[in-house]
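Pasting as-is:
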Amino acid sequence: MTATMKKLGVVAVLFALVASIGLFGCSSNNESKDTNAESADYTLLNDGKLVVGLSPDYPPFENLEGDEVVGFEVELGKAIAEELGLEYENKNLQFDAIIPAVVSGGQVDIGMSGFTVTPEREEQIDFTDAFYIDDQAVAVMKDEGITEENAAEALNQDGIIIAVQSGTTGETYAQENYPNATIQPYGNSTDCFAAMQSGQADAVCTNKAVVEKMIKDAYQDAEVVATSATGEEYAIVVSKDNPELTKALNEALKKLKENGTIDELTAKWL
């Protein structure tokens, strides 16, 4: 064997060694996630799958584009599932049916649908750590004569109808801040805006990010006339009977914050 051949042989061995280390590193990462899923202490409806209850009418958090559900929380849910070594699946429900579904079990593992942390909800379910903070906002049609300057008084009048999504903090906020108005609940935020545009309601009250998205995409003839810095924390809804799942979700959220995934999704959607 010549010296050149010996050198080539050494290079080949080193190349093979480096390649095997690279493959080992990749497989270790994937195997780690698979092992986490297999050895987890939490319970799921279906092994290897995270079923998420959501109401796909709350852009930019979740809404339908054709037959596909898209949005900030949809992508976040998929990232969490991947971090836990699980398959992601969403189940579409009315918003006010999601917490009961989480509590009763049998339909979904968790709820991700613009849920903000409140003491009333915490009596029924557990929340993960927060991943987004939002405020409340009120929108009206531009030709209503209600402005930022007169909104506080103009909206709090007998005969004024404020559309809200049933079971949301927007409903609670409207009831507390506009006691003289009629607070009309609807099943979803899309119906709220449709009611306002058609004249069945004078205003819509819901989270600021949703109001701004709806106006930008579909209701350019509406405008925001009131905002309130309520500082509401968005979090994931989990059954009180599944504390280990809450713990696992918090660990996944922490990793996604640290690696920049949540910042990327926030910049993309919010």
